[in-house]
Write a structure and sequence with these properties.
56% of the residues lie in helices and 11% in strands. The protein is of the alpha+beta class and 226 residues long.
Length: 226
């Protein structure tokens, strides 16, 4: 079975991500699609195993096999967790619906480390751009601010909301380069500090509910084997 056929025939969940999901889309925004497919269990009985992820077949489309997706979500991978909370779902079946019902099982205090570590890496890239070119990549700066705000709110409420809401216009001003870099830096520093403060009293559990997710995966694999 080709990778394209796995995505075409065995996708359990697909959504739109990027600016369109975040509420930051403009007329020239791409449509980024992300999905999860369930490779039929008999494919694992062969020497050549199914792929853990597939790029395409459409432009700006990327999909993960269910087990790989769950592994990354349990590690609090920011991009994966955000996929589970997209407001724009394009395709879903019963397995996909059960996956979404497990969203809270993936959330834990690990998010502080993974979100902040990812943000720190992006911040270093922006700082390098400023040193080299005199200005950051403003679109990347906008998305880093969005990520930091999302992390802060997740730690504070225990819920992950990826839409930017009332921050839309201010963030788009950053994307257009209309906000001075020192002001953007100050905003980033404040958001990171607020995330640290929220982590002290976060309602998130220390660890994700791995057993609950594994039970779902085993039942799904067993059903697919029939």
């Amino acid at each position: 079975m080709t990778p394209e056929a796995l995505v075409r025939d065995h996708t359990v969940y697909s959504c739109v991500m990027g600016s369109r999901a975040f509420g930051l889309a403009t007329d020239d925004s791409d449509t980024d699609r992300r999905g999860v497919f369930l490779a039929p269990t008999p494919l694992y009985w062969r020497f050549d195993k199914p792929p853990t992820h597939v790029e395409g077949p459409a432009d700006e489309q990327f999909s993960w096999e269910l087990e790989r997706f769950c592994e990354l979500a349990l590690r609090a991978n920011p991009n994966i967790l955000e996929c589970l909370h997209s407001p724009i779902v394009e395709r879903i079946d019963d397995t996909g619906r059960e996956l979404l019902s497990l969203r809270d099982a993936f959330l834990s205090r690990r998010a502080l480390d993974t979100f902040v570590r990812y943000a720190a890496g992006q911040r270093r890239k922006l700082d390098a751009d400023v040193r080299t070119h005199g200005a950051p990549r403003w679109k990347h700066a906008m998305h880093l601010l969005r990520l930091l705000a999302s992390c802060r709110d997740l730690l504070h409420t225990g819920r992950l909301v990826i839409e930017v809401g009332d921050d839309r216009e201010r963030l788009l001003a950053v994307k257009r380069g209309e906000v001075p870099w020192p002001e953007v830096e100050s905003w980033m520093t404040r958001l990171a500090g607020e995330a640290d403060e929220a982590a002290v009293k976060t309602p998130l559990p220390p660890e994700p509910d791995r057993a609950r997710v594994e039970d779902f995966l085993v039942r799904t694999r067993r059903s697919s084997a029939g």
